[in-house]
Specification:
Layout lengths: L1 H9 L7 H14 L6 H12 L10 H25 L4 H26 L4 H4 L1 H8 L3 H8 L5 H10 L7 H13 L12 H15 L2 H5 L9 H25 L1 H17 L1
Length: about 260
């Protein structure tokens, strides 16, 4: 377990590892360095260099320390973005990406923890609330031990909770309404229709029904279907937004690759 965790976090050759994600972040930041403030660049350097400190696989204690440092740097970078970045199309695209990725993450997290089994008995609802940064909110609101329907209400349907799936799609919808190329003679764009469809399903969801086991295997089929739809919607949005606003970058990379092939 310790070896696998170390590989996922710090092995640069792991395809889904943190080290590779941070390396890609560093390359992207380098490409737009002139647009970054000195403080932001310093925090990005500290963040992207963290997995390269020391030799060999770190101990659990050292890995925990490094992860805490990364979390602090990420929080600082997020604060710089929220306080200093002008609210233009670039900021909206950045926040769109963050909301889409957060939707994917929470949909997968809730599926892994709550679709099967008895999460109240195993105590993993505390973990789910902690990973969703909602534990204090749950305590102050419900003043009781975590129960699945209430946890699902907080993480899925509560549009006042900035970590809920409903909140993510509300924010996505607001950004899209102000983006160019989304208005076509008063008609809804493909991405706007996707947001409305997913948001409607979340709004109409019955959390008691979602928390009810429907199969002998202990599977909550209604919850699984809703989470599948959320993840499908996030994937659809990512694809449409990429094709709409980043197709020139894709074409540039493809044409550059073809020119390179011709030269070799």
């Amino acid at each position: 377990m310790e070896q696998e965790l170390s590989s996922v976090l710090f092995d640069p050759d792991s395809p889904d590892g943190l080290a590779l994600v941070l390396a890609n972040l560093g390359r992207t930041a380098e490409a737009v360095r002139e647009r970054l403030s000195a403080d932001t660049w310093r925090m990005l350097e500290q963040l992207t260099e963290a997995p390269n400190r020391g030799l060999g696989a770190p101990s659990i204690g050292e890995a925990t320390r490094q992860l805490n440092e990364m979390t602090e740097n990420l929080s600082a970078i997020n604060g710089m973005i929220q306080e200093n970045m002008t609210r233009g199309y670039g900021w909206r695209l950045l926040d769109l990406g963050r909301r889409i990725e957060r939707s994917r993450f929470y949909a997968r997290l809730i599926r892994d923890i709550a679709v099967t089994g008895s999460p109240e008995e195993s105590g993993v609802l505390h973990l789910l609330l902690e990973l969703g940064d909602c534990e204090m909110t749950y305590r102050s609101r419900y003043k009781a031990t975590p129960q699945l329907p209430a946890v699902l209400d907080l993480l899925l349907t509560d549009d006042s909770n900035p970590r809920s799936l409903a909140f993510q799609f509300d924010e996505i919808g607001e950004h899209l309404a102000l983006m160019p190329l989304e208005q076509k003679g008063g008609l809804l764009s493909t991405s706007q229709r996707t947001v409305i469809a997913v948001r409607s399903e979340l709004q109409l969801a019955d959390v008691v029904k979602l928390a009810t086991v429907k199969t002998k295997a202990g599977r909550r089929t209604h919850l699984a279907r809703l989470l599948d739809r959320v993840e499908e919607g996030a994937d659809e949005l990512s694809e449409v937004i990429t094709l709409t606003y980043f197709s020139h970058a894709i074409e540039h990379r493809v044409s550059g690759s073809r020119r390179g092939d011709a030269q070799t």
